[in-house]
Design brief:
The structure is a homodimer of 451-residue chains. The first copy, chain A, contains 21 helices and seven strands. Chain A is of the alpha/beta class and 451 residues long. In chain A, helix 14 links the parallel strand 5 (210-211) and strand 6. The first copy, chain A, is elongated and about 90 Å long. At the A-B interface, helix 11, helix 12, helix 14, helix 15 and helix 16 of A face helix 11, helix 12, helix 14, helix 15 and helix 16 of B.
Chain lengths: 451, 451
């Protein structure tokens, strides 16, 4: 439905572009959501984008601009008049402006800062320096500040006067003369309050807050836990520096999840989108773990070499190795994934390890027995495998599944205990470890039962 | 920091409980966030929870109650006075009430409904029937509705009068006499507008909206795309039935991500937390895919059987099989994960498949060459492997990585084209396919070069 609507919008815009019917195009554009226009930009070529951009009214232009990717932003900046550029940059919220400037070449920033007022220049430089993924890098400065001794009615008047340029007016910040954060008050409270009530009496004191250097993952956790709309960021002396709004947090949550997906598939995390990332960068992010895992897998090969004599006298044993290794790896990945996710969502804590271990042990017995039974029946009915081999394979399968699930559930918790990221203890690494374990179990049992 | 604070809160509450100092405990509790109190409940036993619950003031009690897990909710319901229960249920937002009722036994609901007014009984029954994971199951009914011919000032008066019971007042819904949704207007617009402006003139017409049966994933996507705070849900005749608020969407996003993690690790998805899920359920969610993959892996074993003669004349070849299979599986998982995630976030579309294929092909050549070189040097310097074998292994490694990355990137896109969930084409399945491919490549090359 959504997709169809965007496609329709695109088709109609394309038609008007082709007909050079700019008057109707301008009218049509003015009725669209900025984010929908930005999405159509992905489908158009550079010249078409610039035509459309010039047809937007100024306020729409700034918002559309904030949704574009860095490449399109650069194209537009280099082709619009300087006065329009200044208008747009002034109209952007501060966090979007910083995001844009971060992608621009140094000399562009220098030129832009040269003409900016002193205070703005200082702020831009300060904000450009916040670490990626820190609370500071998510902040904006367009918030409503109030004094505690005014009334709710006066506060509403102030919001009416100054609110139009603020990113949010739904949470207001109560500051003292030194800009120290005393509390927050929601617009909801202000509207519902009696107009004579003092801010001091209705504000939430000791609000949840973070420092500029705090990690964005902590920020996202606080938003989720306290159902926040916005979160104040303070410096060491508790002075308000900026606020973080919930729209940016939705992106942070997806970004943190993407990083976990990447780490769990043995890649170094990246926050660039796949389509925009170059081949060399993609290769570089993947090679390190592949190398580590390849070298580890050679040890598994050496186990085979050690049992060469046994194998050459019963080559049939070979045929079951992929099934045993794969089943072990898959069973281990399942456990590791559940535990890593449980830790990430705060559902599983370090102290829960005995609970987890005992649960996984019972699950692995059930699953292992089921797999071994299915496989035993398959061998019995469909192949002429010798009884000794069938028993060896079945016992190995159960023990491998048990070992895999224990390794898969304990390693992420151990990583957490060692203050490593549990996400690295996922499928690929678990598989490599379980491969070796399963072969040792297999050959040991075969040695006892068959020779 | 967060964790330490909860632990501290818990310690202090426990101390006051042990001292039976209920007066101070009551005062202390009144200053805490409800969600923090609910978190401490996880650490206390049933009797202690009930004592604390009774010490809460009534409004806090309802909010704490909404944060508790189903088990604790049941314990509390069975131990508090019926009048308090009714007070709490009345104070809960409708979506929280439905979530609670869904977990309660049928006779409890029946008893409760018996004493409820007719209209509420009808609504509860209607809401209990919405499909899990549908927009309907996320709705609440406490919204502000406005008529289009009133002024902004009158609207603010209405909000002042009725807003205290609404889940959000930040987006208001403009309805006609038949409750058809004409538009939305934000509290921001109402506050900033001139008091005499008509709602009709300032409302957003054609607002983004969904139907009750729409999937929660679509709902979450709309929230992310349009930076919404709330989303209206309408019936077939465009009449407003309820609204969805952003706090519930944060949970939906995490839940959808969890499901993807589970599917990608070859499990059937579950939205229950690990700790609360029983061993049998856990085993059941895992066994299906393990069985499918185990049977598939037997085919890989049969490839080995077919080349038994070749293998027994060069048992050394065996030693490289785990390394080749693992590296291929890992390389394929990397590609599959990136593509699945890209599709989920809307960054990669069906039509992008040639771009993806070409990119993965180049990445795989780079990565394959790097791995083969590293492995060749290792063999050359550390082992006395024959040159023919070294060459066979190196060529196989490059070709396996290329095949793995192509399979890993194309299968998720193919799944999408077939309207299957791309997430099932992840690590485990890719590994099984790539295992077979790598062995066929290996034995073919060995047959040509070595015999």
């Amino acid at each position: 439905m959504e997709k169809a609507r965007v496609a329709q919008t695109h088709t109609f815009i394309q038609k008007l572009l082709d007909e050079k019917n700019y008057k109707e195009l301008k009218a049509y554009l003015s009725g669209l959501y900025p984010v929908d226009i930005a999405e159509v930009f992905d489908e158009l070529d550079e010249d078409e984008c610039i035509i459309i951009f010039r047809l937007l009214n100024k306020d729409q232009a700034a918002e559309v601009f904030s949704y574009l990717n860095a490449q399109r932003q650069k194209e537009i900046v280099s082709s619009i008049h300087e006065s329009l550029l200044h208008y747009i940059l002034n109209d952007l919220y501060f966090d979007d402006k910083i995001d844009f400037l971060e992608e621009m070449p140094a000399n562009f920033i220098k030129k832009l800062l040269a003409s900016a007022p002193h205070e703005e220049r200082r702020l831009i430089n300060q904000f450009l320096n916040y670490q990626d993924n820190s609370a500071g890098s998510l902040m904006t400065i367009e918030y409503v500040d109030l004094k505690k001794h005014i009334t709710a009615g006066q506060a509403l008047e102030r919001i009416k006067r100054t609110g139009v340029d603020k990113e949010t007016i739904y949470t207001c910040y109560v500051l003292d003369e030194k800009r120290k954060l005393l509390g927050t008050v929601s617009l909801r409270k202000l509207v519902l309050a009696n107009g004579h009530e003092l801010i001091d009496d209705i504000m939430q004191t000791e609000p949840v807050k973070v420092g500029t250097a705090d990690d964005q993952e902590l920020v996202a956790d606080l938003f989720k836990k306290y159902d926040l709309m916005a979160l104040p960021v303070v410096d060491g002396e508790d002075r308000l520096i900026g606020i973080i709004t919930i729209d940016d947090i939705m992106d942070v949550i997806e970004q943190e999840n993407t990083e976990d997906f990447q780490k769990m598939a043995a890649m170094q995390p990246s926050d660039e989108s796949y389509v925009e990332t170059g081949v060399l960068t993609l290769a570089r992010k993947r090679i390190v773990w592949l190398l580590i895992l390849m070298v580890s897998a050679t040890f598994t090969g050496e186990i085979i070499t050690r049992y060469e004599a046994l194998l050459s006298s019963a080559v049939l044993l070979m045929a079951f190795i992929p099934m045993l290794m794969d089943s072990g790896g898959n069973a281990g990945s399942q456990s590791a994934t559940l535990i890593i996710r449980g830790i990430a969502l705060g559902e599983i804590a370090l102290k829960d390890w005995p609970v987890v271990l005992w649960k996984e042990f019972r699950v692995s017995l059930l699953v292992g027995a089921a797999l071994a039974t299915a496989n035993f029946l398959r061998m019995l009915l469909l192949t002429g495998t010798a009884t000794g081999v069938m028993i060896t394979v079945s016992i190995t399968l159960v023990l491998t599944i048990v070992a895999a699930k224990i390794v898969g559930s304990i390693l992420p918790i151990a990583a957490k205990a060692l203050r490593l990221d549990p996400a690295i203890m996922a499928g690929p690494l678990i598989t490599t470890i379980v491969d070796a374990l399963s072969l040792i179990i297999y050959f040991t049992i075969a040695g006892v039962l068959l020779f």
